Amino acid sequence: MAVLGSSSAAPGAKLLDIGAGSGWIAHYFAQQQPFQVNAVDLVDQREVHEGFEFQLAQGTTLPFENQCFDVVLSNHVIEHVGDAEAQRHHLMEIRRVLKPGGKVYLAVPNKWSFIEPHYRLPLLSWFPQRLASAYVRALGRGSWYDCKPLGPLTIRRLVASAGFVYRDKAASAMVEMIRIEKQAWLPALPLFSFVASRFASLLGAVSPTQIFVLESHSGSASIAA
To answer: In what order do the strands lie in the sheet with 164-168?
Structure first.
């Protein structure tokens, strides 16, 4: 939660985890942070059920009233919801349920990563959908390629068009990961932190996972400084 900032963890804050999957992320925040946690998914695949409320969703529509969450998590979800229109609706629904001053954690694979993260195949997301599906079938990984990762420019334009200001947090997330996991190159952390602070946008553009913190904008969408 360091990426979102400490102000997001006020006692009693309401958090929504979209795409609950196994339920471990929702469970973690229910245990570690002072959140009231809700989670949604299209199907119930939970391995853990404790600590949070769960509801089924229909498509990209969220089953909640307007402005009811302080924090919304969309962690590797938007690439699974469908075409560009569905992806924008996903973001618009997040904006609808977000309280004024609330924050969104958005993580999405970089379309131009060398290794596609879901199927672990080189350059898979670079190809048009039909060729990507043929690639998946040829290597016996499935019947079709069901993801639509977004490139750095595309995701920025999309979140802005949905009425959000955004901050690129990929570089700071890398720093936090090194600190938490005690990587072997931890002694280089001060240097990496300095580089990350000076070239955050560049690092975010080349990172395999693009990470943003979004906030709704009362007027026209823009980029947060």
So the answer is: 53-56, 35-41, 13-18, 69-75, 98-109, 209-216, 164-168
Q: How much of the chain exceeds pLDDT 90, in percent? A: 69
The DSSP 8-state label assigned to residue 117 in this structure reads T
Contacts 24+ apart (CB under 8 A), 116-125: 116/147, 116/149, 117/76, 117/208, 117/209, 118/147, 119/145, 125/149
Residue 122, SS3 per DSSP? strand
Question: Which of 52-66, 78-92, 164-178 is predicted with the least confidence, judged by mean pLDDT?
Answer: 164-178
Q: Angle of helix 189-198 relative to helix 170-181, nearest 10 degrees?
A: 170
- Looking up tokens 């059920």 gives 49
What does 39-90 look like in DSSP terms, one character per residue?
Answer: EEESS---S--TTSEEEE-BTTB-SS-SS-EEEEEEES-GGGS-SHHHHHHH
d(CA 125, CA 143): 15
> CATH assignment of 11-119+148-216, given 3.40.50.80, 3.40.630.30, 3.40.50.150, 3.30.1360.30?
3.40.50.150
Residue range 60-99, pLDDT digits in tens:
999 999 999 999 999 999 999 999 999 999 999 999 999 9
